[in-house]
Amino acid sequence: MLKVNAINSFYGKAHVLRNLSFNVPKGHVVALLGRNGAGKSTTMKSIMQLVRPSSGEITFKDEDIVRLPSHQIARLGLGYVPEDRRIFTDLTVIENLLVGWQSPREGAVTWTQEMLFDLFPNLAERRNNRGKALSGGEQQMLTIARTLMGNPSFVLLDEPSEGVAPVIIEQMIKVIGQLKSEGLTVLLSEQNLHFAQAVADSTVIIESGVKMFDGTLETLNSKPEIRDAYLAA
Amino acid sequence: MNGVLKTQRLTKTFGGLIAVDNVSFELQKGELLALIGPNGAGKSTCFNMLMGQLKATSGKVYLANEEITGLAPRQVWRKGVGRTFQITATYSSMTVIENVQMALLSHYGDILRFLPRAHLLHRDEALNLLDLVGMVNQADRHCAVLAYGDLKRIELAIALAHSPMLLLMDEPTAGMAPKERVDLMELTAKIVRDQGMSVLFTEHDMDVVFTHSHRIMVMNRGKLIAEGDAAEIRNNPLVQEVYLGGGTLFTSEVASHA
Amino acid sequence: MEFFVAQIITGLANASSLFLVACGLSLIFGVTRIVNFAHGSLYMLGAYIGYTFMQVLPGGLGFWSSILLAGLSVGVIGVLVEMLVLRPVYKAPELFQLVATFGVILVIQDIALIVFGPEDLLGPRAPGLRGVIRVMGEPIPKYDITLLVITPIVALTLWYLITQTRVGVLVRAATQDREMVSALGVNQAWLFTGVFGLGSALAGLGGALQLPKGGADLLMDFHILAPVFVVVVIGGMGSLPGAYLAAVIISVLNVFAVTYLPQSTLVLMFIVMIVVLTIRPYGLFGREEVAGEHGQVGEPERPIKPASARMQLLASGLILLLAMMPFYTASFSLVFTTDVLIFCLFAASLHFLLGLGGLVSFGHAAYYGGGAYVAALLVTHVNTPMELAFLLAPLGAGIAALAIGWVCLRLTGVYFAMLTLAFAQLLWSLVFQWGEVTGGDDGLVNIWPSEWLKPTIIYYYLTLLFCVGGILLLRHIAHSPFGYALRAARDSQRQAESTGIDTRKIQLLAFGFAGFMGGLAGALFVFSKGSVFPNELEIARSFDALIVVFLGGVKTLAGGVAGGVFFKGIEDILIKFEYWRLVMGLLIIFVVILAPEGIVGSLRKGAERLNLIKSRHM
Asked: Which letter does DSSP use for residue B181 in this model?
């Protein structure tokens, strides 16, 4: 569904992604693993064209999306959940959802506010509160809900477990499972191997912007040298 | 009493909201004390009151039996407290070594000098500090182009510049790979041992907390709800309910640290 | 009592235009983060265009359609400005975009001159609303009553649009994080254009609506600018109710001041602003400006190094060349070079504050003009010897800077910038309105140097000594521990404060020092010209310095000086042409678009690309 082919991205002068290629098949949850600074967020931003890759191809549903403005990519059904939540703190929960709203899309679930409040019961109680009044966990829920309002068929989840309590992460695991069962495709960037193992079908490991591993979790577990070098404690 | 840091009924309210509610604890010399809890539990607020970024609504803070409540951050620093930040704070227009020299210039009272060239002052001492955190071979690189983990090390070198008796670390390993986390915490533990320093840190990575702290305090909704060693905290049902969850998210073996 | 009510009604009516212009500015700032200095120019265009339509369209219907058409036309002009000038520079550092709006001011000034001619136009009366209505026996013009009704309607409509519609939600979201809005599928480019268009239309509407009370002239752009900024800042950047309340307060106070204290009208506005900001630092309804982490653009500044041997040689050669100048050029070239040197020192002093300190002062003319006036006042009123006045001038400017800095440094970001502008305007108003001491608009004349310094050549050497010495001193301090601490406070105040650095003290000292050097430039200026007029304290003078620093390059130590030479050189060539402002404005806009790192920064990048010099980045 999403094909990333030999992209190179720079951040200022730093060469962040080097010839990075991977695929995300429809209906799969793929975890992009690696330490901070490895280039996970830049990969996500490059897909959304928030960072413009200097070379390489990215196709979504066989359509070339390199150089497209970000909002057009979002309108193709590619939803982006940023790493540091970036909710609109001065807007209420409902208004935040309204910003993410897009018209229904063929072949994707059409989310309503009520469906999202079912998925995230905490948000329902706080629907008229401003974003800044929410706790960190609630903000994390809101940023996902906001993206779902755009009825995406594919979601980019950038480090959803960063700085969140283990109890909230457990809730997140349930939500991702639910999204998968609704037919959504997910690319998830993570550092928390425990979390990735609980939700992902396969993983891509990157280090300094270079792909080090691409395969299923079983394969990864059978290669402890890779796991230990880039991930495991 | 050889408590390095002591708080007495420390409280902070924002409007009607009680962010930190009567928190009292004591940190012993040479101790690595972890403060954990859900987001919004009041950990950062608590930290900011210790360092002086926030004024406490009530309660007191003592550093080595001297009251430091209400002092500005720079005054707290002069009393011998160093800190690192959750979101790294370095001087992005300077080189690595200049970042450390800056702290040394402040420590030696050179800030208001207009004539000497700053980059020539305290260079050797800065190199020693960088050596300590393993950054000496990157000393002349521009800070803005460094990897995140390296910035965290620079922050540590800055925080150690005035040989503090107490180090406050706000989520020291956030955003690091597991291997780096272990390295950084082992480095911290070594410095604590060698220099007889004490450390208070907040952290979300339970592997780090359970392995590297001597003692753990848990906060929830502004209150301290539990305190103890790793095993006690893991098996505390209240802590499991509000924070730890079912335990799928950290390594099941607890390294004994006693 | 009756009289009071009448005064208040007049004040409320006067608040109308002010509010419209101010809320347009506030709206644009909220979303695009651009402080649109060209907003006064759009207001002026609204007046001219409205006037033109009124000449063609007859009767009451014609009058009101003209006002609406003026608003619409200016809205379209705003859209064009946004698309042609601002879109290409959104990628440039935020404050650099300001310079583009300065360029727009100059361009619009000359276009208005070409299209509408130099004469002041007297606004037509509103048909059917010529008379007065008696309110409690006092006559109130009917047009005032009409304005009184129109403004709240516009305000309520805007309020509804912003708070109750999805577009309004998107606008508010974009205010906070435009990149995220775009990643959620909203075309932010058009959102920006739309908001800029709406804000411009409001300015145009304001300009057209005030025609019956004022008229149209070519100075309107700068005259409205100061009150509008005062209103926006008092109300709180981005707050509609705040803008309304502030516009009313300022206008009503102004009406009373005209009656009771006619000498204080201009000063009063700034005093109100200073009082409000002292009690509520972010305005009546404003919230603390937190510098956004997102949407920030531009590379981080590079580490500074002492000049290389090659650069030192180059600089020495240049200084030698300047020192030899009297031997190979005519005396008018010396006068011109004196001007350039003085201007470079002025620019370098602002660059010190802005580049190293990250403290964007919009009112640096206060210290330049201030220094000039200190010297001139001492000579005029107490017969101070020139040498002593010359030394006391920078001292006076430095002390003024310390006092003003002490108040302004309580604020950050755009509020800080606005407050510095307000203080500069306060000084200007004092000088302008306190005629018996300062000479008012006629300035102070006969301020000549002592006999031994009078010859052009001698004065040239005096200037060379102080300007080159001053610039080298500023540069040397950049490399000293103090200069480093100043940069540390800019890069990360959090870290600096947590390692024992009193950042406010450092910044205050820097502010005072920059003011001192600005005052030195002013002192050199006044004795070289023999006179000083209030325009040395004007907003335009502050803008000159800002343009120069940005064009030269904020992030490079040589930026101020390089920009100063470039600006003065170009100005000297262009000023011979009738429409030099137009050319200058366009030139500024092009430089902003083509060289977003400033002249020095872009040259350095070019040289690096060609491998002429080594990159300092790694």
From this structure: H
At residue B8, the pLDDT reads 93
The secondary structure of residue C89, as a DSSP letter, is G
pLDDT per residue over A171-210, tens digit each?
889 999 999 999 999 999 987 788 888 899 999 999 888 9
Residues of B in contact with C489 (CB under 8 A): none
Give per-residue pLDDT as tens, C183-212: 999 998 899 999 999 999 999 999 999 999
Entry field: residues in chain B: 258
CA dist., res. B256 & res. C572, Å (int) = 78
- B177 vs A167: CB contact, 8 Å cut-off? no
**For C324-377, how does the pLDDT look when each residue is reduced to its tens digit (9 = 90+)?**
888 888 888 889 999 999 999 999 999 999 989 989 898 999 999 999 999 999
C-alpha C53/C-alpha C45 separation (Å) is 12
Cβ-contact B139, B150 below 8 angstroms:
no
For chain B, say whether C616 makes contact (Cβ under 8 Å).
yes
The reply to whether residue C480 touches residue B77, judged by beta carbons under 8 angstroms, is no
Q: What gap in Å lies between CA A34 and CA A13, rounded to an integer?
A: 21
* Partner residue opposite C618 with nearest CB, options B142, B161, B162: B142
Decide if A49 contacts C185 (C-beta within 8 A). Answer: no
Q: What are phi and psi of B205, to 5 degrees?
A: -85, 110
Find the residue in B nearest to C355 (Cα).
Answer: B93
Per DSSP, what are the bridge partners of residue C547? none
Question: Is B83 near chain C, with CB under 8 Å?
Answer: yes
Residue C45 CA to residue C74 CA, distance in Å, equals: 7
* DSSP for C158-207, written as a single string: HHHHHHHSHHHHHHHHHHH-HHHHHHTT--HHHHHHHHHHHHHHHHHHHH
**Do A119 and A175 touch, CB atoms closer than 8 A?**
yes
- Token readout for A27 is 């209906």
Tell me chain B's radius of gyration from C-alpha atoms: 19
Distance (Å, rounded) from C-alpha C418 to C-alpha B11? 37
The Cα B17–Cα B246 span in angstroms is 30
Question: Is the CB of residue C500 less than 8 Å away from at least one CB of chain B?
Answer: yes
The answer to whether residue A131 neighbours chain B at the CB level (below 8 Å) is: no
Q: What tokens appear for B123 in the block?
A: 């260079």
Longest dimension (CA), chain C: 81
Taking each helix axis as running N to C, give the angle between helix C59-81 and helix C39-56, from 0 to 180 degrees, rounded to the nearest 10: 150
Taking one residue from A and the other from C, the number of pairs with CB-CB distance under 8 angstroms is 66
**CB atoms C484 and B77 under 8 Å:** no
Query: Of A3, A37, A23, nearest to A207 (Cα)?
Result: A37
* Closest chain B residue to A39, measured at CA: B147
How confident is the model at residue C443, as a pLDDT?
92
CB C230 within 8 Å of CB C56: no
Indicate the angle between helix axes C142-164 and C2-32, nearest 10 degrees: 30
End-to-end, the C-alpha distance of chain A in Å comes to 33
Distance of CA B231 to the CA centre of its chain: 23
Residue A13 forms contact with C (CB below 8 Å): yes
CA distance C322 to C337: 9
Chain B residues whose CB is inside 8 A of the C303 CB are 93-95, 98, 142
Cβ-proximal residues to B26 (8 Å cutoff; 6+ apart), any chain: B3, B5, B6, B7
CB-based contact B118 C616, cutoff 8 Å = no
The interface pTM score, or ipTM, of the predicted complex is 0.92
Residues of B in contact with C304 (CB under 8 A): 93
Facing C173 at nearest CB: one of A80, A99, A150: A99
| pLDDT for res C295 | 36
Is the model more confident about C262 or about A70? A70
Whether A168 sits inside 8 A of B144 (CB atoms) is no
